[in-house]
Structure formats: C-alpha cells, structure tokens
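User: tokens in, sequence out, please.
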C-alpha cells in the first residue's frame, strides 16, 4: 500500500496515513464521499500527498495538490512521482 511513498517516521505523517488509509476517515458515514473514475479533485493543504494516493487508489482522473509548507512540499513532489508510476491518475503539485 505504501510502496515508494515517502513519509517521516515518528511524526504526524504516520497519523495522517493511518487516518486516511487505514481507518478510512473519508469513508465514514458522516463524510462518505466517493471518488469516481472521472473525478478531478483539489487538495488544499496536501501535506505529503496521502489524499492524492487515496484518490489514485480509487481511480480519480486528476488531483491538484497545494501545499504551502516547504518540507512537506518536497516530499509531496517525490510522492507524486512515485504515485504516477503506479496509477493512471494525474497529480499536479503547487506551492
């Protein structure tokens, strides 16, 4: 699930990954939105790209990822490259 996905161990990165990918926070009844094949998403505050990975795993067409924090943005860019090698979703990052 996290092949070639970069994150910082023993930081909040692990909590974000756990909430989105393991606990499936976006699939809870209170939120319950679906990502479909032709969807285009804007991820404001992309952090290191966990939502981008989630969207790619669920077949989104495109995700625009905005992350203002420089260290997170560098990791986001690497993760986008790695995600793009595995999934057909187009991801673009902005700072």
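Assistant: Sequence out:
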């Amino acid at each position: 699930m996290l092949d070639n996905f970069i994150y910082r161990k023993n930081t909040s990165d692990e909590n974000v990954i756990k909430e989105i990918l393991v606990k499936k926070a976006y699939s809870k009844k209170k939120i319950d939105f679906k990502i479909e094949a032709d969807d285009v998403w804007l991820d404001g505050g992309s952090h290191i790209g966990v939502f981008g990975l989630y969207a790619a795993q669920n077949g989104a067409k495109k995700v625009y990822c905005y992350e203002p924090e420089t260290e997170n943005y560098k990791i986001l860019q690497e993760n986008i490259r790695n995600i793009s090698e595995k999934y057909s979703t187009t991801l673009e990052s902005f700072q």
